[in-house]
Amino acid sequence: MRGMSSIDELNQERARYTRLKADKEELKLSVMRGEYVSVQEVKKQWADMAGNVRKKMLALEGRLPVQLENQKAGDIAEILHREIYEVLNELADYKT
């Protein structure tokens, strides 16, 4: 920088280093407190959850025909609603 002495530049660099070091330690503490998770962990949780929902939705194909056989339209709608919301509620309550 123009007009700055090497001492001023050195002091600025030391201050910058100190701020970065403090930020790093603050981030470490946040991770230790569980305030942050890794991207890999989030991806794994989403993949697990999506796989579980997929499995549950595909299982409807095998379960529903027996339940829907000889049912009236209103009853079919109620059964479908119940089964679909069961899967959606499980998704909403998903715990890792």
Quick structural gist:
This protein has 96 residues and is mainly α. The chain has helices at residues 6-32, 39-68, 73-92.
Descriptive terms for the model:
single chain, 96 residues, mainly alpha
Report on the architecture of this protein.
The protein is built from 3 helices and no strands. By secondary structure, the protein is mainly α. It folds into 2 domains: 1-36; 37-96. It is rod-shaped. The mean pLDDT is 89.
Total tally of structural domains: 2
Main beta-sheet annotation: none
Q: What is the helical fraction, as a range of percent?
A: over 70%
N-end to C-end Cα span: 52 Å
Summing up helix and strand content along with how strands pair, one would put the structural category as: mainly alpha
Beta content comes to under 5%
Order of helices and strands: HHH
Number of helices: 3
Cα radius of gyration in angstroms: 28 Å
Let me know the number of strands: 0
Low-confidence stretches: none
Dominant shape: rod-shaped
Whole-number mean pLDDT = 89
Describe the secondary-structure layout.
Layout lengths: L5 H27 L6 H30 L4 H20 L4
Helix pairs in contact: 2-3
